[in-house]
Amino acid sequence: MLSNKLKKSAALVAVLAGSFVGATNMTITAYAQDYAHPRDLNLPDSTFQRPNPMQLQVALDNGLKAYVAADDRVPMVTISAFVKMGKISDENQGAAEALAYALKNAGTGSMTSAQMKEMLRQMVANYNVSLHDEWLEISLNVPKEDQMMAEKLLSDIVLNVTLEQSAIDGAMAGVKAKVNPGDMVDGSMTVAVDQFHQRLYAGHPYGYVPTKADYQRLTVDQVKALYQSHFVAKNITVSYSGDIDADAVKGRLKGLFAGLSADMAPSNPTVPVLKDSGKLKDHYKADKYLTWAVFGHSLPQMSPQDEAAFEVMNYILGGGHFWTRLFIETRDKYGLTNDVSGYIVPHWYGPGSYSYHASSRHDVLMTTYNNSMGEIVRMTQELPTAEELSVAHNALADGVFEDQFNHGDAAARTFAIEMLRYGNHDMSASYPERIRAVTVEDVLAAAQKYIRLGDMKTVLVGNDYDLTN
């Protein structure tokens, strides 16, 4: 839960409680609004303690590590496998996408695709396969009574997925024709963000999208080679949570995934730096009442200390809450937009991104943009206040951090992904301390080091309007 120090006192909505007598009389009770600042409420400090990952972990003889957390709030079970294999893991473009398609659709050595889909239907299962740049997630959520069936199915998919030409054909069928964002039917921030990242990572492995030609060159043997090299025990972690007997699950997991190879995990891919210099502006006209704007630049890999300072800086500047500098300047003062927030998107092995997202009527977009840039520039020139720093410390070290462990699936999932990425749990163990160690001088230094005003890329999707300096 969010630290009580950090919660802004939201006005309590008046409650109407009444009872009808016949069809005419109603009694109304109104409760007064409380506008007190959190510092005046004498709320207690958070007593949250991060769970001990070793108490949730079970380590198999072949090297696989799983995290099991009992959580009986609802009679559901979630089982997920995380694989350190993503879009950039293979030189054969499209191989990861074809493998992900097979994991989602193709069946296993013991059942056809149709049989697998029927089993999922019978369990009323929510089954997802998500392929990211550097890792892949296979997740299955089912009612408690189908737990045993679900765990056997997931392990069968991981160990024995069917790989045939149909996987390549299915992935190729998903290739979308290039569409001008201005031709979209429904305008949204998602389109602008997608276009921003396409421009930012143009010519870089993180930005490459396989083409039909790539899939036509791809062979089943190449997809099988990717699967065999990366689906090994030391390259996979598992999270298992829900209304379960944790000890019994830990015992069964040793048998369910014992068949995975104990071979060494593949080396992490080498990712080139991003040649992200100079400004760029793209505008896609769409006949919409709003214009969506995304502006920002790439981020290099950071040390844990710099990462903490930059996260605190962003929380103060545009961290997605009601007291950021960008929110106050663009909404509270002038009502120009619903929100302008800053988004840090890290990558595991190479350059991430840092961008600001805004939407406004096209006639006030220039004002929204200029006011936002004014606050961004100010962030690189002035020390934050002690109160801004305190709010960020408590929000991140208590609220945001706690949220990663606030229920069984969140805790098991957080630890499983952390182990997959780092091979240990040092980052989560040190996170609150690193955040609270950030000073106002560190915040200013992080802004000056990592905000690159001269390299801002801007993408607009909306009405005919141009941002000019």
Describe the overall structure:
This protein is an alpha+beta fold and 469 residues long. It folds into three domains: 1-47, no CATH class; 53-175 and 210-256, Metalloenzyme, LuxS/M16 peptidase-like (Cytochrome Bc1 Complex, Chain A, domain 1); 280-462, Cytochrome Bc1 Complex, Chain A, domain 1 (2-Layer Sandwich), CATH 3.30.830.10. Helices cover 39% and strands 17% of the residues. The protein has helices at 53-56, 95-105, 113-122, 147-160, 165-173, 189-200, 212-217, 220-230, 246-256, 304-318, 325-332, 365-379, 386-403, 408-422, 426-436, 440-450, and strands at 20-21, 25-26, 57-59, 65-70, 76-83, 126-131, 136-143, 236-242, 280-285, 290-299, 340-345, 352-361, 457-462. The strands form three sheets. Strands 3-4-8-5-7-6 form a six-stranded mixed beta sheet, sandwiched between helices. It has a five-stranded mixed beta sheet with strand order 9-13-10-12-11, with helices on both faces. Helix 10 (304-318) packs across helix 16 and helix 13 runs antiparallel to helix 15. The model is unreliable at 1-30 (pLDDT under 50).
- Whole-angstrom Rg: 25 Å
Which class best fits the helix and strand makeup? alpha+beta
The helix tally amounts to: 16
What's the N-to-C terminus distance?
43 Å
Tell me, briefly, the overall form.
globular
Low-confidence stretches: 1-30
Determine the fraction of residues in helical runs and give it as a percent range: 25-40%
Average pLDDT figure: 89
Per CATH, the class of the largest domain reads: Alpha Beta
Helix and strand succession? EEHEEEHHEEHHHHHEHEEHHEEHHHHHE
CATH superfamily of the largest domain: Metalloenzyme, LuxS/M16 peptidase-like
Q: Classify the fold: give the CATH topology of the largest domain.
A: Cytochrome Bc1 Complex, Chain A, domain 1
Q: What fraction of residues sit in β-strands?
A: 15-25%
Main sheet specs: 6 strands, mixed
Major sheet: arrangement of strands:
3-4-8-5-7-6
